[in-house]
Design brief:
Blueprint: E1 5-12, E2 15-22, H1 23-35, H2 40-50, H3 56-73, H4 80-89
Antiparallel strand pairs: 1-2
Length: 90
Amino acid sequence: MHTANIKRSIVRNGQKTSVSLEDEFWEGLREIANAQKAKLSTLVRQIDQGRQGNNLSSAIRVFVFNQLRAQTSAGAYALPQQAAESAEMR
């Protein structure tokens, strides 16, 4: 499976810059922003301010991944195999 990167322009520190991410990460980032009742630009700014050495695209990917991992740890999501095994046990 190959997913193309999508480049979007954002304003960062008053400067326009572009960020290239796979569409799935853009969708995940929007979902997180909606869940937090925050603007996408605000969330990107927070990620940008908290990153350490990574480029912004990588920092966003790690952030989205960590949010998913936190939800998975909390039991909000089950992996497809876990869900099937759970259904079989019922």
